[in-house]
């Protein structure tokens, strides 16, 4: 069972832009090997930090409008949203310690 939930074009505004606290959106696709590699790492980070950050997955094939809006040109791409704005961007699959370093400002 995954700790990371999905968001879509229909729920993005409520799930991400109106969220309290930081939200990491993992822009991914089913055919993307590195995306599948980073998914369990994001699961772990979400499980270990449930009160600090919300991690959501967004399938770029099913939601091309959001992929275009946020200029996703390669995946996996992760964007951290804070107060409805992109606060930081992480490109590519990384090991857990590297992702935790990138997310340190939000994990406190």
TrEMBL record:
InterPro entries: Thioredoxin, Thioredoxin-like_sf, Thioredoxin_CS, Thioredoxin_domain. PANTHER family: GEO12009P1. It comes from Microbacterium gilvum. It holds the Pfam family Thioredoxin. This is Thioredoxin. Residues 1-108 form the Thioredoxin domain. Belongs to the thioredoxin family. It comes from the Bacteria. Keywords: Disulfide bond, Electron transport, Redox-active center, Transport.
């Amino acid at each position: 069972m995954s700790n990371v939930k999905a968001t879509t074009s229909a729920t993005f505004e409520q799930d991400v832009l109106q969220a309290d606290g930081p939200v990491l959106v993992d822009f991914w696709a089913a055919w993307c090997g590195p995306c599948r590699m980073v998914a369990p790492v994001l699961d772990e980070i979400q499980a270990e930090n449930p009160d600090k950050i919300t991690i959501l997955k967004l399938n770029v094939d099913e939601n091309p409008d959001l992929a275009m809006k946020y200029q996703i040109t390669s995946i996996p791409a992760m964007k951290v949203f804070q107060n409805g704005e992109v606060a930081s961007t992480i490109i590519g699959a990384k090991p857990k310690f590297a992702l935790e370093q990138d997310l340190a400002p939000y994990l406190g």
